[in-house]
Design goal:
alpha+beta; about 15% strand; elongated
């Protein structure tokens, strides 16, 4: 995985990276560095060799199973949920159906069982129990994990709002007890639509009309954006105002 700057949470060998930088180029800061104790799981060789013709070198990267087993228990709970939701195969007809590099929950559970420490297994098992392939975006997955951590009831995913003439909308979240739907908007706002979301004014207008049609069927609607997800106290206040029920223990 390459990027503009080194990411300390990614895998690699820092000493080897420094040697590589000195030998090949003065600045290879785009190469990842990371955990020295990364294990090699999931294949007979434990790693793949990737040739970079542009850099003129061969990079050793971890196989997919090993990467998952090494990474999931180290991430925060919302981050791990994002990864796992996308890895689990989606149902036929889903927007994610047919994606490559998927793993069943049973396969991931076997990787979890092979981890060397009980705390690692516990963290990964909690993520696997929570993961849901119905989640169709990073924002939906992260939101759902934050909602759970805040102590709210978990919503149904990909809920279809039906009217007299058929389906009116398919919403991200639904709290059946309150007849309330939730929508994660990413960067979209009803103002500065083109700059913030890439959507035209007509597309944003259609979003607003869609919400009006949902409300006409006596559903409540609560929407949030990334800024609120990343500031959980703000998201909690919004969900409480909308009437999202708290989880009972």
């Amino acid at each position: 995985m390459l990027g503009r700057s080194a990411a300390p949470s990614l895998y690699g060998n820092r000493d080897a990276l420094e040697e590589l930088k000195a030998r090949v180029a003065p600045d290879l800061s785009m190469l990842p560095t990371g955990f020295r104790d990364a294990r090699r799981l999931g294949s007979s060789t434990g790693k793949w060799s990737v040739v970079s013709r542009r850099l003129g070198l061969r990079l050793h990267v971890q196989d997919f199973d090993g990467l998952l087993a090494d990474t999931l228990h180290r991430l925060s709970f919302p981050e791990a949920v994002v990864v796992t939701d996308q890895v689990i195969p989606a149902e036929r007809g889903s927007a994610r159906a047919g994606e490559r590099c998927t793993r069943s929950k049973e396969h991931l559970a076997a990787l979890c069982a092979a981890l060397g420490k009980g705390a690692q297994r516990e963290r990964m098992a909690a993520v696997l129990a929570f993961a849901d392939p119905l989640s169709e975006s990073v924002g939906e997955s992260y939101s759902r994990a934050v909602i759970a951590k805040l102590g709210f009831e978990l919503p149904e995913l990909q809920f279809r709002v039906l009217g007299a003439s058929g389906e009116v909308a398919r919403t991200d979240f639904h709290w059946r007890e309150r007849k309330l739907v939730g929508e994660f908007d990413g960067l979209m706002k009803y103002t500065r639509a083109r700059e913030l979301s890439g959507k035209t004014a007509a597309q944003v207008t259609e979003e607003k009309l869609r919400e009006d049609r949902i409300r006409e069927l006596d559903y409540g609607v609560v929407r949030w954006v990334w800024d609120e997800v990343m500031n959980p106290e703000r998201l909690a206040a919004k969900l409480l105002r909308a009437g999202v029920p708290r989880r009972t223990r």
